[in-house]
Design goal:
By secondary structure, the protein is an alpha/beta fold. It folds into two domains: 36 residues; 228 residues, Rossmann fold. The strands form two sheets. Strands 2-1-3-4-5 form a five-stranded parallel sheet, with helices on both faces. It has a two-stranded antiparallel sheet with strand order 6-7. β4, α8 and β5 form a beta-alpha-beta unit. α7 runs parallel beside α8. The N and C termini lie far apart (68 Å).
């Protein structure tokens, strides 16, 4: 009997050691796998809400982005919540007859794009950062991903781009939002072609070509695809169901904008990876 008990204790001891060894091995393999594997890519959004003002609705940027996606056989639905001169604070408080928070909560968007009034990130950066955070809370409660529309400097004030970029990037890092570097693409385009007419006559709003370039950057950011090869004439359906021209630029300008957007997006994402963040 004593010998049987000794054998049983020995077996239990060996079994325990074996189990412990297996646990250590499995833990090591799991850690190796997690360290060695790329994370699963985030799903491409199918429904996007653009929140902003005239910088967003000039030439109907969201519809142009949708038209680009359709041209690339990608079903991307883009809606708008906007009002002239609206700040993100106006969207939060429901001013200017805006119902942005209700739209975010009710419409089941995959992504929400935030664009503050053009001068606010320069004059009141803390308010921009604050309001981005408050809107990001609502966006995440609705299980959507927040994106920031990093806008461009006004004509004749290229030095302001640095402040715009810093404010939006700080807001993105603080609140975990993704950035669409439109202003950086404008900066690159104007450096390569100083006479390119991206601004409207008022020196602030986008021309059709400015909207086309902005849409190319959004196309790259939202679909993870290169905008090179997209058509220079984009069509959409009006309220009656007829197909109409949404926006048209020259082929030469379209190709230039496509390549600028591609280079900007690749450079931006590469820099974010090196800094340890994809935001």
């Amino acid at each position: 009997m004593r010998n049987n008990r000794s054998l049983l204790q020995l077996a239990k001891g060996r079994y325990g050691v074996l189990c412990l060894a297996l646990l250590v091995l499995l833990s090591s393999l799991t850690l190796y796998a997690l360290c060695g594997q790329e994370p699963e890519p985030e799903a491409i959004p199918g429904k996007v809400l653009f929140v902003g003002n005239s910088y967003t609705y000039y030439h109907e940027l969201p519809l142009v982005v949708s038209a680009m996606a359709r041209a690339d056989s990608n079903d991307l639905v883009c809606d708008m919540s906007d009002a002239g001169g609206a700040t993100l604070e106006d969207h939060l408080k429901g001013k200017k007859r805006l119902n942005t928070l209700e739209m975010i909560q009710a419409a089941k968007y995959d992504a929400v794009v935030l664009q503050d009034q053009s001068l606010r990130p320069i004059r009141n950066p803390e308010r921009t950062v604050r309001d981005v955070g408050l809107l990001c809370e609502s966006i995440r409660k609705a299980k959507a991903t927040p994106y920031l529309f990093l806008t461009w400097a006004r004509k004749g004030q290229p030095e302001k781009q640095r402040i715009l970029t810093q404010t939006y990037m700080r807001a993105a890092r603080k609140h975990g939002a993704r950035v669409v570097p439109v202003g950086m693409a404008w900066q690159r385009a104007l450096k390569e072609r100083p006479d390119i007419p991206l601004h409207d006559e008022d020196g602030s709003h986008p021309s059709q070509l400015g909207t086309y370039l902005s849409a190319c950057v959004f196309f790259a950011a939202l679909t993870r695809q290169s905008p090179v090869g997209l058509p220079n004439e984009l069509r959409a359906r009006d309220a009656s169901g007829r197909t109409v021209v949404q926006l048209r630029v020259s082929k030469e300008d379209a190709e230039f904008c496509q390549h600028v957007a591609e280079k900007t997006w690749k450079t931006f994402t590469s820099q974010q990876k090196r800094s340890g963040s994809d935001r």
